[in-house]
Specification:
Largest sheet: 5 strands, antiparallel
Number of domains: 3
Order of helices and strands: HHHEEHHHHEEEHEEHHHEEEHHHHHH
Strand content: 15-25%
CATH architecture of the largest domain: 2-Layer Sandwich
CATH topology of the largest domain: Beta-Lactamase
Radius of gyration: 36 Å
Number of helices: 17
Length: 335
């Protein structure tokens, strides 16, 4: 008979054997949140999850001794105004049973700032008047630090991208629309601004559109392609010969790559490149003539043709355009 009684006892509803308050507290202990409820009518805490309240460095008793307005003073000054505004909305005409999630910096007892995420719900009486607030707080300092590190990494990458000495771009596969580029690309293509470049750059810049189709075909066979030459025109109508290195991302629908302007190496003869190299070193016509064993008049003719081909009106413009075309680097490599 005693065995049957034991069996009957085990069949008892678990809730009858496990007090609700203890049951709920044990569940809360398994969750990584601080649960709380605050009585708006009497300005006091109804419930504060003691085991994890120490995340702020304060004991539950220390927190319970503070009003909600005391807590506001412990929130970072940059976050406090928005928190106060949200609490005013919660206590006003905020829709019943609705909730809000807020993130803010809270001053730890040791003086450091920690990030908290708080999901708050308003509790109203039968007339719809707010009587208390209930919430679940989670510390997110580690997440915020990771976000900050990621943001800093993205900022540094963006700076490197924008200030790179080589033209970088991203175009859409299906129609060649320019999706992104850096400042070097804008300067090489001689657009007045990046906005204009992104707006107007299309496949029409290519003299022979079939060359782009050929590039796409080669990229589809092998995802990367290096030093692929394409002839086209810049924004101002001047010709350009580009060496493109690209990689295709078919799943994302775009191509990314680098572009080097090799126009000067196509339109200048070998002797003109040598003369330009020496001009960029600051040598006079007479010095260049002596070094290349040519007459001064011949060097003057070469310089005039170089200026005309590069569309430069003076030495300053010639130097700037030579640097843009990478001829300055060419000169250094051939010293």
């Amino acid at each position: 008979m005693s065995g049957e009684k034991d069996i009957e006892k085990n069949k008892t509803d678990p809730k009858d054997r496990y007090p609700t308050e203890i049951f709920l507290r044990d569940i809360c202990d398994c969750l990584d949140n601080i649960f709380w409820q605050y009585d708006l009518v009497h300005s006091q805490w109804v419930y504060l999850d003691s085991p994890r309240a120490s995340v702020t460095g304060y004991t539950p008793e220390e927190i319970e001794a503070k009003t909600i307005h005391d807590i506001f003073e412990m929130i970072h000054s940059d976050d406090s105004p928005k928190i106060r505004e949200i609490f005013q909305q919660l206590q006003g005409d905020f829709p019943p049973n609705n909730e809000v999630n807020i993130e803010y910096r809270f001053k730890h007892k040791n003086g450091n700032w920690i990030w908290l995420s708080d999901t708050i719900k308003v509790i109203r009486d039968e007339q719809g008047k707010p009587i208390s607030l209930a919430g679940a707080i989670k510390e997110i300092s580690q997440i915020k630090n990771l976000e900050k590190q990621l943001s800093e990494s993205e900022r540094k990458y963006r700076e490197l991208y924008e200030n790179a000495h080589i033209a970088l771009y991203r175009t859409r596969i299906n129609d060649g629309k320019l999706l992104a580029c850096n400042e070097k690309f804008v300067r090489v293509m001689r657009y007045p601004s990046k906005e204009e470049c992104l707006k107007h750059y299309t496949m029409e810049v290519y003299n022979h559109p079939f060359r782009r189709m050929e590039l796409l075909e080669r990229l589809s066979n092998k995802r990367e392609r290096f030093d692929f030459e394409i002839e086209g025109k810049r924004f101002d109508g001047s010709p350009i010969c580009m060496k493109v290195s690209a990689r295709i991302y078919p799943e994302q629908g775009y191509i990314e790559g680098t572009m080097i302007d090799v126009t000067a190496f196509k339109i200048l003869t070998k002797i003109e490149l040598n003369v330009l190299k020496l001009v960029l070193k600051g040598m006079s016509n007479k010095q260049i003539a002596n070094q290349l064993h040519r007459s001064v008049r011949t060097i003057e003719d070469h310089r005039a043709r170089i200026m005309r081909k590069l569309q430069a009106n003076n030495l300053v413009e010639l130097t700037r355009k030579a640097i843009e075309l990478g001829i300055n680097g060419f000169a250094n490599k051939n010293d």
